């Protein structure tokens, strides 16, 4: 039949378009992007340190383990030295990595969940719902993030979970704005109109049709959110408003502040750790932006 | 009784503080097994009309009856059973398919949503429709970006037909396709109409295509139907000056014919108050045209025009 | 090659990375004539046009060939020389009127920019010329409209502004890339009429790129049909429509819903089966898998563009043989 497309025509076209699944295409683009790779490498190193902390440094990092204020390299058992209370700095960095990553990731996840929900519903439905949600978003945005977190933590108790929750609650507006913009533009796309014409309900359209196509900028923003969460948590701990039972990079900087002129490594080392991790996350975010952005020409 | 009957339909929206009627009082009928062509230039409201009929837009006023049932006032939930009976084929083969779904998922989901529970039955129906639009079964595992424009349009047609509707609104289905692919798709649409007993509302700005493909043709200008006739009468003896200008402007692929006439002055502007809305561009307007708005009235058997001089 | 040609493209080949978009294309345009370059999407017609203007994107490369424009080879000309030619002796009208004008400059400023780049006129003289041009292209009330921004103009009006910019310095060649595809049919007629009138008035040549055979029939002197990066037929317009020679050209004309009296109830459209990708990666004629005239020799090598009559060329071994046989029969 003249009108029938031969299988070879489908394959020929697919071959012309690098016939791999969208996922594989992205993986290959990711492998070619140096920004992304460097960021991922550093991140993986941090994750590795965080996961192996209990094995590498058994015991409580807040225990007094040795003589106070040892410099890095002075004593082989304490490769990065000890602080004014004799606690192992290396152990502190490793356990601090756990805290930072856990708080960072969970705070970002909470912010992502709330922000996506608010943005999606407002962006898709429009009307009075959107108006209300936009006002709520603006309200949360006008309050300075750090102060809001302090207030929430003060209301609850300063545990890592509450801190993560507080940061998540303070950071969702950025995601919400982004998601709302994506949904507003995608809801008039033909394939969404087609879904409506097929009688799909709004929930199916929001979650199965639009959301998978809106993910790219959300994914990019997530890495930046994790970085910001880590910085916020470090700030809290620095001010002694964090979880007193945990060692965090921020608390290490706070504790080392008094000895800044003599034992500056006590602030420099955790500070470097924070800087490196935040840098890595930003690199990953930039790299993802290039990879996932169809106009960059890299996919 | 007609399959589709539209009476006095208005679709208004507010822009810059003014109320604009994209569909400004349209009535039409589509019978079972009939192809009605809707032709007009950009901004005339033909796409809006198609979407309003399918209740993808809400009408401001008027009646839409599908098989005798009134649809204009129904809420989205009440409309769901009717969605099986009327579907749409879109213009842009690249925007009309969800880039993140395989073709198999794209065709399976409508059946799932409309209550076809058994997977085997869904699979059989999906395979059937894919074969009918001329695609091989292995297309089901692939993603939209792996297909050409013409192939994607076939997928779009398959999606519209998988629920076995009675009425299909085709919104410029071949305008974005190459000439040689246009012919394939038009032939396919004609075959499917015959095999599945469909009715089409065929919307296009391309008069040649509409002349070939439609049984009856409606000409639209600024939200209103200005002429309505069967395809042969429209081409042989157009009664409305706009139709005549449209027909004259189409360049013919025959160098011995005289050049396309530059019949109309100026460009499409929004409707002015009072009188015929076409008079600003009309080559034969008279005084009456400035004061009295002509109604669409029969001027010959099966032929209606909205012009005082018809 | 005619020594008096204005534009003489010789064996032009353009590629994007590893993929070739134009496989050795040759044609010429004489002063004052309109050549239509016809083909479907992906055939390379726009790439050819941009190559002639040397406005290809950085990922494209001209692999070989010469583009002789009034004695200068544009392929090897230095950027300075090209900038002097563009806008003054050769100009471009693009398809999409919405995006081809700068949205933050007034229309008058954009036309004036072209004039000032290529000619030394006083401010007042430039302004006068701008108003003359707007009037020439049929924009009413030029004095006021020159001070307006593109978004105040409709599509057809914007295209007229583009034409005004294109003819501002009386170029010898205008390349019009699907100039009316994005416009309504009633506006299309106006714009093409305007372009043709200006062409005659200023003695310009036009390379008209289009997919619409109606436009070709009405406005072109000669036509070149492109398929998969190659010219497959070249002929003067009338003989082409009387008897298109290349099977692809015949198929396209058959698929076009042009003629009156054909209706779906009585006649199917002539289809060309498959698609452009059908011959991907294979040697031989790129149209072979879709061609009703294909013989086994067609799959060996791409057919050369052969002279088969006065100013007539076809790239098809079957057709070339057939024409040869007809000549022999006529003579013998």
Quick summary:
With 299 residues, chain A is mainly α. Chain A is built from eleven helices and no strands.
Description:
The complex is a heterotrimer of chains A (299), B (310) and C (332). With 299 residues, chain A is mostly helical. Chain A has one domain: MetI-like fold. Chain A is built from eleven helices and no strands. In chain A, α4 runs antiparallel to α5, α5 packs across α7 and α9 runs antiparallel to α11. Chain A is flat and about 80 Å long. The mean pLDDT of chain A is 86. Chain B is α/β, with parallel strands linked by helices and 310 residues long. Helices cover 32% and strands 24% of the residues of chain B. An eight-stranded mixed beta sheet of chain B has the order 6-7-8-3-9-10-12-11, with helices on both faces. Chain B has a four-stranded antiparallel beta sheet with strand order 2-1-4-5. The longest helix of chain B is centred in the middle third of the chain and has 18 residues. Chain B is globular, with a radius of gyration of 21 Å. In chain C, a hairpin with a 2-residue loop joins β11 and β12. Chain C is globular and about 70 Å long. The mean pLDDT of chain C is 89. Chains in contact: A-B, A-C, B-C. At the B-C interface, α5, α6, α7 and α9 of B face α7, α8, α9 and α10 of C.
Class by alpha and beta content of chain C: alpha/beta
> What sequence of helices (H) and strands (E) makes up the elements of chain A?
HHHHHHHHHHH
CATH topology of chain A: MetI-like fold
What is the general shape of chain C? globular
- Terminal-residue CA separation of chain C: 30 Å
- Main beta sheet of chain C: 8 strands, mixed
Share of helical residues of chain A: over 70%
Please give the CATH class of chain A: Mainly Alpha
Largest sheet descriptor of chain A: none
The sequence of SSEs of chain C as H and E is EEEHEEHEHHHHEHEHEEHHEEH
- Would you identify the regions of chain A where 5 or more consecutive residues have pLDDT less than 50? none
The most extensive interface, with participating residues per chain, is: B-C, 46 and 48 residues
Kindly report the name of the CATH homologous superfamily of chain A: MetI-like
Number of strands of chain A: 0
The tally of helices of chain C reads: 11
| Proportion of strand residues of chain C | 15-25%
Which sequence of strands runs across the widest sheet of chain C? Answer: 6-7-8-3-9-10-12-11
Task: Based on Cα principal axes, name the global outline of chain A.
Answer: flat
Strand content of chain A: under 5%
